[in-house]
Amino acid sequence: MQDNDPIRRRIVINLDSPSSKRAGGASGYALNAKRSRRWPKVLAFFTAFVFVLVLIAIGGSYLWWRQYQTTPAYSVALLIDAAQRNEVTEFDKYVDDNEIAKRMVANVTQKVSARYGVALNASIQHEIDNVMPRLLPRVKQTIHDEVAKEIKEFAAKTEPKPFILIALAVPRFVSITTDNDTAKASAKLNERTINLSLKRDNDQWKVVEVNDDVLVQRIVDSVINEFPAIGHDAAVDLIKGLTKPKRGR
Question: What is the largest distance, in Å, between two alpha-carbon atoms of the chain?
């Protein structure tokens, strides 16, 4: 007996029918198309993000480099580079010979006086004090040559490099401290330490003092012949002073 009741009839949907396949295929194509349209946007956003990062890095590097050019480390790098290339004119831009000589005269005078030892008397000291001003131009040239020589020796510790590498390396092998418009730089050279004092000069720095006993001794050796010799008169004065009878109380 047939069941004619429509309520009790089962509704069967054939999922494998061509119409359902077409519906599923259309839905999948739409999803793939939507994903395909999304990728260019993601790629464009990523490219723009990377571009912005590159611009920030370039801008930051430029600002850092401009600021670094106003530091004493940059001037020291220029000094080393000029010494390596033997560029005297460029080297002189960063060395104040007058100020270095003025500050070193006291040390040279002290070293010269010390050579006389116990033979030094007021007359010899007075003559030393009178000779030094006359020797100042010669001392200045000697100081200039010796400072250039020391900087070249320091630069010769490494192979010649492009300036950008020297500038970036200076803070690693030269200790620099800055106090407003003055700075101190120290570096090792042949088991001794060279100390430089620098002073701001507009947007650059100049060496105004060199503290190095070896350098002072070289200058003393170059001018010692201009001073009174320890001769008979000094010896006689020394003997008189030692043999002078003491006064009784």
Answer: 165
Token look-up 């000069």 returns 201
Instruction: For residue 193, tell me if it sits in a domain.
Output: yes
205, β-bridge pairs:
200
Mean pLDDT by 10 residues, the chain (249 residues): 54 50 52 63 80 86 87 91 85 87 81 77 80 79 81 72 85 89 86 87 88 82 75 45 46
What is the number of structural domains in the chain? 1
- In a domain? residue 236: no
pTM metric for this prediction = 0.64
- Residue 106 domain flag: yes
Is residue 213 in a domain? yes
Q: Which residues form the domain of 105?
A: 72-227
CA distance 185 to 174: 6
